[in-house]
Amino acid sequence: MTISKPQSNEETGIELYDDPCRLDRELETLCRNSSPRLTDRELLDIFPEAKGIIPEKIREWEQQRNQIIRRIRIKLTLNKYYIKGELEQCFWREWIKVMDGKELLRVEGHIARLRRLLSVDKGRIPEGRITEEDIKRALAVPIESLLGRPFRKSGRALVTLCPLHDESHPSFYIYQDTNSCWCYGCNQGGDAITFVRLLRGYSFKEAVKYLTGE
Question: Percent of the chain beyond pLDDT 90?
């Protein structure tokens, strides 16, 4: 079935913000080209002007994340009410999850990275208690190992029932290549630390300690 083109971007929420500009590119270049890898503290010392820009960049990424979530919801609604046939609906639902979900997780990753830099700049991570190494170890814990339930493969993802809300149709996707997750039913997810915070109601520090076994 052919779906008529929406009248405007404002009506659909499908418009996207431009990719992050100079700050994000330079941060990523510094991280990628540094050997050994720079710590967050060293990165901020080399690029001090980032300190005043980070809060604004976080807001921009959050706006983009909200746009993507809105777009996913619109597409899923259109698929449900305008696409005839269960097989076709299933195909387009999976396509939306794979394509838009990958973009959403990329944006979530940028938000998490910038929030971590902001926390380091403000000294919110107590030295000797939660270190960057602790955070790396926590982020490396496979999300699928935190759930005692069966999964099925869907492309490069693992799919299961969402542990964050009640559902009968599996909509919780784990992307092993980035060790991130997203539920397309309740629109929640992120990296391993974010997932534990959502699942158990932990603070950031509590989630890191839980994942590192402390």
Answer: 29
